[in-house]
Write a structure and sequence with these properties.
Helix content is 32%, strand content 29%. The protein is α+β, with helices and mostly antiparallel strands and 259 residues long. Helix 2 runs antiparallel to helix 3. The longest helix has 32 residues. It starts with a strand and ends in a 5-residue tail after the last helix.
Length: 259
Amino acid sequence: MQYLFGVNITRDPLNRVTDGAVFATKHAAPQPSSLSPAAIMQADPEPEPTGVPLILPLLALLCTLAFVVCGILTVMDPTIPRIAAALVSMACAGIFFAAHHIRQRKARKYAHSRDYRASRALRQIRTELEIPEKAVRMDAVAFRYREGKRAFIEQSSVRSTQIWCFIAEGMLCLADTEMRLEIPLAEIKSVSREGTRMTFREWPRQDPPSGIAGVQECPEGWYVMVHSVRIRDVRDDFVLHLPCYEVDAFRKLTQIPMV
């Protein structure tokens, strides 16, 4: 038995490759270490640095020209209206130039911000892994384990990992920030009705867990009921672990029966 997002450390305690890597069909380029996978997954895929409107420097230039013309006319015939026009045009030129400079600074600052870098990484990953817009974002359970008569899961390593889930050409596609897995739908046998309780040290979602059946607060974090998706491949039997609150969305997408 192997686990799609399980890391087998029986022989190599430093192993970081998940069992499900054997289903990988595409890999994304490595992302900067300063950006965590969670930050990338939670990024807004749309934002771009705010463009600096060309109208501001154009208006500043026109006001400057008006100031020059009014200044020349004032020197030739210093009347109050001409002096006022020169002062107003000079003030407007200063305002437009200042506004243009402020917009430029904000655009440069955002282009180097963590949010923008995460958003840019998200768009790059979705392009490289060919993840469609209709893909459902959900949580899966990841952990490290050791083999034995019964797999021993390191409870301290249990965590939620965000993935995209979608169907393409008869394949169940699961993608994270590193790779895209493709599993024939025919190999997915069932979703278990009985769950196993695991401890999440941090609540993985933005919305509070109140009212979610199978989730309970505990001193270590959160007890979460975890269900198993059984996969029978020619290489071995695999299991995808899903938190209880994701099972309905997964079954709706795949039409896999619950037993």
